[in-house]
Automatic annotation (TrEMBL):
SUPFAM superfamilies: CheY-like (SSF52172), Homeodomain-like (SSF46689), P-loop containing nucleoside triphosphate hydrolases (SSF52540). Residues 4-118 form the Response regulatory domain. This is Sigma-54 dependent transcriptional regulator. Its main location: cytoplasm.
């Protein structure tokens, strides 16, 4: 399939030179001599990228880019200019330019920039198609990815899910181990029965035993009635034991008995009850090391580890970041009544540069913050946490530094500040502020009342 670049320049000679160079690199080329022609061309045809001059006659490159991105926010637009002012560069990046090149052009830099821009463009198309396919299949809709690590894991889930095997899910915190457990249950023969979850790290030893196996009335102080445990609640279904590595040693012996014999005993009872439960366990610890250091029973480890599924960290599957980020953006835009359409190419570069020590959970939190702070159609980059911006390095050009004073603030405080700053920028014009914030005027007035922000007279 031929990759087509739209070249926009009112200088015939320069446009011709670019046409020859791009064709030499294997691209097909369409041309426009002004911004209005470029906008019309984008509406009629599909392009992998737009390469446009800034200073032109009727419609300049900045204005043309605004219209192009309003029509297709994911189309990379690269600006060219002989005027290397920082203000113009910042404005271009703020609006959503993929990159900014200075005339006379460095052709090596142009070739590399085009290659990156087209890769972003193709990735966006592939991600949209993958999301459509996942939606149609209705299988593991939130385990999104196109990386080999994720596709292999999904294939393993499809193989293991219909069996009765106990599964041990391992991986770093924030990788999505609970999503794997849900997928295993939803694709199993037990899917019509309950999936019951227990966080083994959240309860003290005595409470955990009661939580798992239940208790008789009077078994301990506060046990004023008989209670079913999680094993009983999950009968004929699936029990997900999260953070299994945190389970006290004494409870491990009773769990092993339940797994081996299919029987449980309530706290305070001397009678056993039969249960039919499939167990899925998860941990971010190295259970082999825990066994060696006698903090975890070896026999229980082997009983749990019939099938092992490792969830890869996000830094090892960075090609999945655009898809995951877009998924979270859609979710939080809807939840916060905003109309954020996507990420600028420069912002997506920020996300791809970062190593995500908190994995998918950290990405989710970063996107939620960005959506709340976003004042336009696209997340530009400064809305992200400062540590993500700084990880891109000194050579990354960004419109403005994200205010460090926001770090660690509650999201409601961040939202309040964003509303106040937008009102200042719009001269307290509520209608204009609501448009910039991507919310309705009625929603803005509700938030003004919620945060007790003084109302002005302008509408």
């Amino acid at each position: 399939m031929t990759t087509t670049i739209l070249v926009v320049d009112d200088d015939d000679a320069h446009r011709g030179m670019l046409r020859m160079m791009l064709k030499t690199w294997g691209y097909a080329v369409e041309e426009a001599s002004d911004g209005d022609e470029a906008v019309a061309a984008v509406r009629e045809k599909s392009f992998a990228a737009v390469l446009t001059d800034v200073r032109m006659g009727k419609v300049n490159g900045i204005e043309a880019m605004k219209q192009i991105l309003s029509y297709n926010p994911s189309l990379p637009v690269i600006l060219m200019t002989a005027y290397s002012s920082v203000e113009t560069a910042v404005e271009a990046l703020r609006i959503g330019a993929y990159d900014y090149l200075i005339k006379p052009l460095d052709f090596d830099a142009l070739k590399a920039t085009l290659a990156r821009a087209i890769e972003h463009s193709h990735m966006g198309v592939e991600n949209r198609e993958l999301r459509r396919q996942l939606s149609e299949e209705n299988k593991s809709p939130e385990i999104l990815g196109r990386s080999s690590a994720i596709t292999s894991m999904l294939a393993m889930i499809r193989t293991v899910a219909p069996t009765e095997a106990t599964v041990l899910v391992t991986g770093e915190s924030g990788t999505g181990k609970e999503l794997v457990a849900r997928a295993l249950h939803s694709q199993s023969l037990r899917k019509d029965a309950p999936l019951v979850t227990v966080n083994c790290a959240a309860l003290a030893e005595t409470l955990l035993e009661s939580e798992l196996f239940g208790h008789e009335k009077g078994a301990f102080t506060g046990a004023d009635r008989r209670r079913d445990g999680r094993f009983k609640q999950a009968d004929h279904g699936t029990l997900f034991l999260d953070e299994i590595g945190e389970m006290p040693f004494s409870v491990q012996a009773k769990l092993l008995r339940a797994l081996q014999q299919g029987e449980i005993q309530r706290v305070g009872s001397d009678k056993s009850e039969h249960v039919d439960v499939r167990v899925i366990a998860a941990t971010n610890r190295d259970l082999r090391k825990e066994v060696e250091e006698r903090r975890f029973r070896e026999d229980l480890y082997f009983r749990l580890n019939v099938i092992s599924l490792e969830v890869p960290p996000l830094r090892q599957r960075k090609e999945d970041i655009p898809l995951l980020a877009t998924f979270f953006l859609s979710r939080f835009s809807e939840r916060n009544h905003k109309t954020v359409k996507g990420f600028s190419p420069q912002c997506m570069d920020l996300l791809l540069h970062y190593d995500w020590p908190g994995n998918v959970r950290e990405l989710q939190n970063a996107v939620e913050r960005a959506v709340i702070l976003c004042a336009g159609d696209l997340v530009m980059g400064p809305e992200l946490p400062v540590n993500i911006i700084n990880a891109a390095g000194k050579d990354f050009i960004r419109p403005s530094e994200a205010p460090s004073s926001l770090a660690g603030l509650p999201l409601e405080e961040i939202e309040r500040r964003a509303i106040e700053e937008t009102l200042r920028e719009t001269g307290d014009n509520k209608s204009a502020a609501a448009r910039k914030l991507g919310i309705t005027r009625a929603t803005l007035h509700k938030k003004l009342r919620k945060y007790e922000i003084e109302k002005g007279e302008n509408e």
